[in-house]
From TrEMBL:
Keywords: Signal. It comes from Streptosporangium carneum. Residues 1-27 form the signal peptide. It comes from the Bacteria. This is Small secreted protein.
Amino acid sequence: MFSVLSSRRIAATVAGAALLSFTAACGGSGNAAFCADAPWTKAFTDYTTSVSSAGLDIKKMNDASQKLSADLKELAGKTDGDLASAINDLATAWEKLKIDPKDPAGAAAATQDMTKNLQEGTAKLAKACSS
């Protein structure tokens, strides 16, 4: 059974994995300085803190996901090309993550879909920062 606690653990785990992946994604691209600074790490750190402190409050978890999406969109606006596209894709993945406590199956599916999109976005980000 999908519970609030499992959704919080999943979100925190995914955010942590994303943070590690993103910091490793830096390379020699036209956006090398942006990639090297990895400004998305603060957004993910803030998200992890918000989700961890949300307790069992699903609204706070959903709000944290929406804020992360907005923060990522703002970062994407500061760069261009494939890097902006990759960050926007990640923002969209988090924007779509909405947990509904009345629909455990839908919440589980949304989390799985977000995880898949996060993996794809991370790969796209790594490629954008290394080319």
